[in-house]
Amino acid sequence: MEGIVGYGAYIPRNRIKVEEIAKVWGADAPSYKRGLMLEEKSVPSPDQDTITMSVEAAKNALMRCLINPKEIGAVYIGSESHPYAVKPSGTVLAEALGATPEVHTADLEFACKAGTEGMYVVLNLVKSGDIKYGLAVGADTSQGAPGDALEYSAAAGAAAFIFGRENVIATTLETYSYTTDTPDFWRREYQYYPQHGGRFTGDPAYFKHVVGAAKGIMDKVGMKPSDFDYVTFHQPNGKFPFRVGKMLGFEKKQIETGWLVNKLGNTYSGSSPLGLTAILDVAKPGDKVLIVSYGSGAGSDAFIFEVTERMDKARDLAPKTRELLDNNKCYLEYGEYAKYRQKIKKAT
Amino acid sequence: MRDVAVIGVGMTKWGELWEKSLRTIFVETALLALDDAGVDRIDSMYVGSMSSGLFVGQEHIASLLADYLGQAPVPSARVETACASGGLALRLGFMEVASGMSDVVLVSGIEKMTDVSGYEATYALGTAADQEYEGYHGITFPGLYALIARAHMEKYGTTREQLALVAVKNHLNGSKNPLAQYPFKITVDSVLNSVLVADPLRLLDCSPITDGAAAVILCPIEMARKMNKPVVKITGSGHATDSIALSSRKDITWLEATYQAGKRAYAMANKKPKDIDILEVHDCFTIAEICVIEALGIVEKGKGGKAAEDEITYLEGKIPVNTSGGLKAKGHPVGATGVAQVIEIVKQLQGEAGKRQVKNPRIGMAQNMGGSGGSTVVHIFERE
Amino acid sequence: MTTPSRYWREIPQRYRLEANKCKKCGFVFFPPRLICSQCQNRKFEETKLAEKGKVLTFTIIRVPPQQFVDQAPYAVGIVELDDGVKLTGQIVDCDFEDLKIGKRVKIEFRKIFAEGEAGILCYGYKFVPE
């Protein structure tokens, strides 16, 4: 059966605390922390972007499966922060891994669900027999406008998954997608920061689609929330995943393992994929995992995985997500953060 | 091979010469050398310039300068080995006269560095490093020498104060050189409190950005003997290369090209390090002087740091080094430096070095280095 | 100025650390060479550099070239990789006070600089603490 043969995560070391951002804008930090359940978020260094994080996450994924990179037949990076407007990110990744030239490569974009889109496409290319292995990465160096609520959560990180048929560490039991046209969040061409519909991003957007996809996939396979050991949802803030989990009938303990957002922030295309990596880091053979992404615009992809015996051999071959989240952190002041994120207008 | 002498030298005040263009600086300097030599025609000329293209956007300066000096159609060639360009120009002029192909050859070096921004100057100088495997990673010239300095400190216990003392000594000498860009004294404290450029090197460890030129006239020794001044001849010339990427060298603290060029110059002149009375070396950074005197055998390997501390390289010391003030105080118009070193040695040997005159030196040596040590030219001079 | 062709040509080295090894004396060259500087042999085999090593020397660049202004101050070091090859590169994700000669580091893929506001993005290797 097809599934994940290798996975890897990457999180930059820089962090900024909610208090540090709130101080600049005169916002009430305690209420933000309570309301959004956020403490701090990751920030990329000036030398990190979607491409560099994708390469590192993918290298970690390769370390867990030890396959020949030349056997990777497809490479997709899902992101809303591709460093080039025109010129693929995926070619750099494919070249850095040594997967070129016999490889299909594309950059995907669908707000925060671009990462799972790549997983969906790669999985189905493997299923069709067209490729032996395929690599899908969800990565973002998200930007929230200064002072906007998004600034407290927009973070950076990447998760990579290699799919194949042999030596699978997590078998894909089912996939499902749920999509409508819902303008809850967008960024027009040539605009630096995105805009959003405020509370419209909640019920008709995030909740409707995540619930739709979760219910859809469970109906499709005849499973119920209690059949899963772990679940991870897209994590735009700390609160939404727990609320949607409750709406669906999941318990807190099923959600907590993949819930990284309070210390990581919203890594957009990397969000639910990173949650999945944190779950795979600890899941035991036989465990069943549900992942439901969400991308504004809007849609959700859902996957059900069952962890195999082989996971025990692969898990320790690369850094674990919680280690990346907790170790070697460097806290930034807002000024440094503004410089790193190119929010300071300089002479040209 | 014929014996070759230096019969004329020319140098104007170095510094930020805002009013003067590259060609004006050159012609003023070259005219001084012609006048000093008492000649008005030359057979050929060499110009050492590291990067007139990047500094003033002008290539093809050999012909331009020959023309403005009123010497066209004499053959004129520009020579480039980064900061060793001037030294190499001298070697080529020396070879041309020694071979008998020419009698009177003008050897000059020039750099006009202040017409570009600091960033552009940093970039231009940086092109002397391996652009693809050093420059690409954001290393600068102070950075490369800082890598050498830290390795030297780690390996031999060289101290931060010892580095500072090189600058202190050279500024003390420079304070007695009216042509120096920065003719004033500094203290160890002022070096240690100057702004960090590339740890552990600070601003006062670094030679400055300078506009300037230097020129000398070479001729067969018989011609020189007819003149009414002490004859200074070139008795040794050595030139050697090394990988320009620091990381490709076996020992980061060791300047192999300087060792090799020195070895060849010593052999040609039939001299040993102990025979040298005065020495001008390429102190583009304080650590450079320390490594150079080790590679030339003036002090033992690893003992370069002690030399300035023990004052053996001071004006009154056993072997005065950089009596001119060195690159540090005199200034470092990169292409001109190698020729200016020759002028200092000639003046010292002729007893015309003014307040910084060393007592009766007879044999002098000049060491001029390109990049982080990827090329070095060494010459030995003797007074007859 | 890094033009696309000049950047592209070095991709095997910058992205994948491709080197070559003298078939006669075993000396490893990075970037690959056509003739061995040690024994003048001209036959080589392809190899890749080790991705871990230790810091031989380092500096902290405080007056950077223009393309590196946003990154300054930053550390640059020469690292002796575990295969003996020495490599120059930035050392990042390491507080300056923790930077020591002998420190273990590994290669990470990073953006080295951007060619102005509109030019190409230049990637390659940097070192991070192991």
Automatic annotation (TrEMBL), chain A:
Residues 219-305 form the Beta-ketoacyl-[acyl-carrier-protein] synthase III C-terminal domain. Residues 3-165 form the Hydroxymethylglutaryl-coenzyme A synthase N-terminal domain. Keywords: Transferase. The keyword Ligase does not apply. The keyword Ion transport does not apply. It holds the Pfam family HMG_CoA_synt_N. HAMAP family: HMG_CoA_synth_arch. This is Beta-ketoacyl-[acyl-carrier-protein] synthase III C-terminal domain-containing protein. It comes from marine sediment metagenome. The lineage of its organism: unclassified sequences, metagenomes, ecological metagenomes.
UniProtKB/TrEMBL annotation, chain C:
Signal peptide: none annotated. Residues 48-110 form the ChsH2 C-terminal OB-fold domain. Residues 9-45 form the ChsH2 rubredoxin-like zinc ribbon domain. SUPFAM superfamilies: Nucleic acid-binding proteins. InterPro entries: ChsH2_C (IPR002878), ChsH2_Znr (IPR022002), NA-bd_OB-fold (IPR012340), Thioester_dehydratase-like (IPR052513). This is DUF35 domain-containing protein. The lineage of its organism: unclassified sequences, metagenomes, ecological metagenomes.
